[in-house]
Write a structure and sequence with these properties.
Blueprint lengths: L2 H25 L9 H8 L1 H10 L17 E5 L5 E5 L3 H11 L12 H13 L3 H11 L3 E3 L3 H4 L3 H5 L6 E5 L2 E4 L16
Antiparallel strand pairs: 1-2, 2-3, 4-5
Length: 194
Amino acid sequence: MLVADIAGGSFPAVINILLALRARDRSGEGCRLDIAMTDAMFTFAWYALALGTAAGRFPKPGELPLVGGSPRYRLYAAKDGKLVACGALEQKFWLAFTAVIGLPPEFIDDTRDPEATYAAVARQIAARSAEEWRPILAAADCCATIVAPLSEAMRDPHFVERGLFAHKIAVGSGKSIPALPLPIAPQFRGKTKD
């Protein structure tokens, strides 16, 4: 994932260009923009930055809940090697998740020994294939799902219905491929009238 290029470059550029256009509309004057990808990267480290500056100690890699420090927010390998993504941070989702996977009761309180809980969840998930877990997790409303390969995600009915990959570009020899989808509202994705 090209976080710096897209999220740190393109998106801040678009935001600042729009702000510059609005400022020009009000003042009648243009401006020069200086957008640096590395500047925007601090935005993505907001939580660690806030903790470090407020507490005087910056978290270590993997220490925080959203980057591997919690068994509630991790990837787990199923029996077939496919991944189950767990995002059950809230207690109600965690309890639903642990119930549906059959986690032994001594591991449900993940604050006692997060690594032991992680290992126990990993064992439970590894006992079944992704396709066995898919309907179980979907019915449980537990913030967990099977990670889809990109080729499969492109065929997902949700994204097909929204027309995310409907726009094609020619690549030569009469062949066309889907254009890169951008986070543009559906009503703005159509062709403009001349």
